[in-house]
Automatic annotation (TrEMBL), chain A:
<feature type="domain" description="ABC transmembrane type-1">
    <location>
        <begin position="71"/>
        <end position="271"/>
    </location>
</feature>
<dbReference type="GO" id="GO:0055085">
    <property type="term" value="P:transmembrane transport"/>
</dbReference>
<dbReference type="InterPro" id="IPR035906">
    <property type="entry name" value="MetI-like_sf"/>
</dbReference>
<keyword id="KW-1133">Transmembrane helix</keyword>
<feature type="transmembrane region" description="Helical">
    <location>
        <begin position="525"/>
        <end position="546"/>
    </location>
</feature>
<feature type="transmembrane region" description="Helical">
    <location>
        <begin position="109"/>
        <end position="131"/>
    </location>
</feature>
<feature type="transmembrane region" description="Helical">
    <location>
        <begin position="151"/>
        <end position="174"/>
    </location>
</feature>
<feature type="transmembrane region" description="Helical">
    <location>
        <begin position="416"/>
        <end position="434"/>
    </location>
</feature>
<feature type="transmembrane region" description="Helical">
    <location>
        <begin position="301"/>
        <end position="326"/>
    </location>
</feature>
From TrEMBL, chain B:
<dbReference type="InterPro" id="IPR017871">
    <property type="entry name" value="ABC_transporter-like_CS"/>
</dbReference>
<dbReference type="GO" id="GO:0055052">
    <property type="term" value="C:ATP-binding cassette (ABC) transporter complex, substrate-binding subunit-containing"/>
</dbReference>
<dbReference type="GO" id="GO:0140359">
    <property type="term" value="F:ABC-type transporter activity"/>
</dbReference>
<keyword id="KW-0067">ATP-binding</keyword>
<dbReference type="InterPro" id="IPR027417">
    <property type="entry name" value="P-loop_NTPase"/>
</dbReference>
<comment type="similarity">
    <text>Belongs to the ABC transporter superfamily.</text>
</comment>
<keyword id="KW-0813">Transport</keyword>
<feature type="region of interest" description="Disordered">
    <location>
        <begin position="1"/>
        <end position="25"/>
    </location>
</feature>
<dbReference type="GO" id="GO:0016887">
    <property type="term" value="F:ATP hydrolysis activity"/>
</dbReference>
Amino acid sequence: MSAVAPAGMTERAQRRDWTLYWVYPVAAAFVLIFTAYPMIDLLMRAFTADGRLSLALLSETVADPYNRKVFWNTLILGATVAILGTVLATLYAYVIARVAIPGKRVWHFFALLPTISPPILMALALIMLYGRRGLITHDLFGLQTTGLYGFTGLVVAQLISYFPFAYLMMLNLFKGLDASLEEAASTMGANGWRVLRTVSLPLLVPGLAGSMLLMFSYSFADLGNPLLLGGDFPVLSSQIYQTIIGMYDIPKGAALAVLLLIPALMMFFAHKALSARMSFASVGAKGSSRHREVRHGGVRAAGLIFVGFITLVICLQYGTILAGAFTQLFGINYSFTTKHLVAALTKSRGALVDTLLLGLVASFISVMLGLLIAWIVARTRARGQSLLDFTANLPLAIPGTVIGLAFGLAFNGPPLILTGTAAIIVAAFVVRSLPYGIRSGVAALNQINRTLDEASTTMGATSGQTLWRILLPIVQPALLAGMIFSFTRSVTTLSAVIFVVSPHWSLVTPTILSQMDRGDVGEAAALSVIVVVMVLAVIHGVPRLLGGDWREAR
Amino acid sequence: MQQTLAKAPVHAPAESPVPTASSAPAKGQTLAKALSIRHLDKSYALGGGRRLPVVTDFNLDLAPGEFVTLLGPSGCGKTTVLRTLAGLEDFESGEILLDSLSIARLPAHHRKIGLVFQNYALFPHMSVFENVAYSLRLRRVAEATVRSEVASALAAVGLEDYGPRMPGQLSGGQQQRVAVARALVMHPDLLLFDEPLSNLDAKLRVQVRSELRRLQRRLGTTALFVTHDQDEAMSLSDRIAVMKSGRIEQVGAPEEIYARPATLFVAQFVGKVNALPATILDEANGQVEIEMLGTRLRAPSPATGLPRDVLALLRPEAVTLGGPDSGLPGIVEDIEFLGDLTEYGIRVGDTLVTSVRSALGDAWKIREGDRVGIGFKEQTIHLLPRTEAAV
C-alpha cells in the first residue's frame, strides 16, 4: 500500500501494529459473553411473562408479603452488619494505628485471618460453639437454645467474616491521615480526644461511609451463613437458593435476584460517587504521615482489651474448627482422631483438586485479562474503552448469588451450553476477580512512565512487544499479588459457584455446605482446615516458588 | 507525492560501510542522512471544535551529519517537533523526509530513529547489556552480533564494564550514557535528544555535553537536540533553531544567533542584552549613523532596510567601564557579584546600561554611586526594528 518504503526495510516491517486488533476483541468478547450476556439473560427472565416484556413477574414477587419480609430482613441485616462492623473496624484500626500497645503484628494477623477463609466457616464454628449442642451454650451453660439461628447468629457470623475488610480500609485511612493536621490541632491546645473528635473523625467520615457500604454489599452477597444460620430469618440470597434448588421456580428466582440486585447496585454507585468525592478530601500539600501514638494508660488498657477480645473470638472460631476436625464427634466425644482429615482427603479429593486447579487457572486468566483491559484503558486511545472498563467492573456491584444464578441459567441452554464443564466455573471465578485484576493492572501501569513504552517503540517494538517485554515483566510483582487475591476470592466463595458446580467438577465450599446439611461436622471442619491451609500455602508459597524479583537487585 | 517518492534514489543497504573523506563512519554505521521537515503543523483539540496550535508551519533542514539544536522556552513546541519526528505524535499536515524519502506515515517502530529521553527511560528490569541489546533482540539479531554490537556501543560511551549492572545501580550520568548507547546500537538514521542533560547536576552536565558532542562528531550521525538551556545549545550545535510559540524565530550558527539575533526574543533568550532605543539618522557605505544614549554613533548596517526608530542591541560584556572622563558619563546604580563576573547597572541619562566584567584583582574598586565612563566598540551594536519593543 505504501510507496514510501525506506530502503532496506522489509515487507514485514511495513505491517501495522496489530496488537490492539486482537487484544481488544478478546477482552471485549470475554466481557460480553461472560458478564453482559448472563446478566441480560437474567434480567430478561425477570422482565418477561408469556414471552413478552412485562413487569408482571416482578410486581407479583414484590406483592407477596413473604417476599417483602425477606427483602426487609435483607436490608435490616445489611444495615446492622454495616453499622456494627464499621464501629468494630474503626475501633480496631484506631487501636492498631494509633495506640501504643504491644503485639500489633499478632493482632493484625488474626484480624485478617477471616479474609482468607470461606465465610461459611464462621457459621460452622458458631454452630459448634453456640448451637443447640454447642460447646459453650450447651456444655458450659447447660442451655438448650436455638437463639443462634436467625438474626443474631447471622449478625455475628457476618461481622466476623466481613469486618476485617472494613478494618483494612480504615487502617489505611488512619495511616494515610495527614499527621500534621492533628499536630496543628494539638499545638492549638486540643487534647487527644478533642483532636480525634474535631479533626480526625470529620476527615474519616467519607471512609466510614465507604466502609458501611462495603459491609452492606458483603452482607447482601453472603449465602453460606444465611443458609446455615438463617433459621426463621430468611434473606434474599438464601431465598433465591431455596427457590431455585428447592422449588425449581426459575422465573421467581430471577425476579428475587433482581430484587437483590437493585439495592446492591445502589450501594455500589453510592460508593463510587463517594470515593470520587473522597479524593478531593485529600487535596493539599503532602504532609507527614508519622503519627504520635497515644500513650495514655487507660486508653492503652482499653485498646488492648478490645483487640484482645476480638482476636479471642476469632481464634475461638478457628480453634473450634481445628478441634472439630481432629475429634471423634465434636460436642459428644472429644478423643483425638485423624479420620475426618483422612475422609476429607479421600472422599473430597476431587473437590480439593478441582478447587485448587480451577482456582489457579482462573486467577491466572483474570490477572492476564485484567492486565490486557488495564492496558487498553491506561495505554491506548481505543474507542469504547470506558464502556469495556465499566462492564468488566460491574461484577463488583453484583452479589455472588446473582452472578452464580445468571451463569447457571444463561449457560444451561443455547447458544452457549457450559453446564457441567470446568469452563463455567473458571468463567464465574474470572468474572468476579476481573475488576480487581483490572484495578491492580491500571495502578501498576500508571506507575510506569510512558517514556518506557515510547523508548521501546522507537527501538522498533510493536505495542504488543512492548507489552510483553517491558510492561509485563515490570508489573509482574503486582500481577502476582493480584493472582493470589483472585485465587483466595475464588476458592472461598460459595454464592458464585453453588449454581454452577456439577458432579464432574465439584468445589470445596459447596461440599462443606452439603456435609453440614448431612450433619457431618467433623468432615466439614476438616475440609475447612484444609482450605485455609491451602490458601495460606498459596499466599506464602507461590511468591517464593516463582523466585526473586528484580527489585531486590536495587 | 507518491510518484516522486517512488523515484527517489535507492540507498546503500544499511549494513554496507561506505567510508567518506572527512568523517569516516564507524564500521557498520549507516551513512549519515539529511533530514528535512516541511510545513509541519500540529495542534491539540481543546474541545468544542477549537484547537490549540503547538507547531505552526515548521520548516527545518539538517545536512547529513549535522548537529542542530531546537532552543526555546518550555511550551514552545520543541519537544513536540522531536516527538513527531520519532513518530510518537501525530500531526495535521506537513512532510518529514529522510534523504528525500518520506517517513511521515511510517509507524514509530519502523522509523529507525534513536531517541534519548529526558528521564533516560531505561528499562528497570533489564541489565545495562539487555537495555542496549533490546532493539537488536527485537530484530532477532544473532547472539554473537548482539554481543559485539552492544560491546562497541557501550565502549563508545565509556561503559565497557557495566553490562551486567542494573540501571538502578548506576549514577545519573551513567544512566544517561546507557540511554545514548541504547540509541546508538540501532545505527539510527537520525539521533534525537530530548533535554537529556537536564537531570544531571551542573558540573556533570558540562562534562557529558562535550562527550556527547565528540561522540556525535565521531559517528557522524545527523542529530537534533532539544533544550531550553542556551549554554548547552551554544556549545553543542553546528546550528541552532530558536523557537517561540510553535514557530522558528531564527536558525543559524551559534555565533550568528548570539551576535546578530533576528528578534529581541532571540537576543534575550540566548543571553543578557541591553536593548537601547535609537534613531537612524543616515545610512551609507554599509554603515548607519544613529543617535542613542544622547550621542551620535556609527553602527554596522543590517542587510534589510530598517525603520527610523530602532533598538540597538549591545551585549553587556561588550560594554567597558572606565574613569569618569572616558566614554559616555554614567553613574553606577547597582552592583551584583556573580562569582566569575560582576554585573554593573550604569545610569546613562535616563537609560540603564548593563555591563559585566571580571572584577578579580581589580585595583580600581567600583562602588555604587561612583561616576564612571562607559565605552563599546561600534561594530558590536546590532540594530533591530523597534516595533516589537514590547516583547
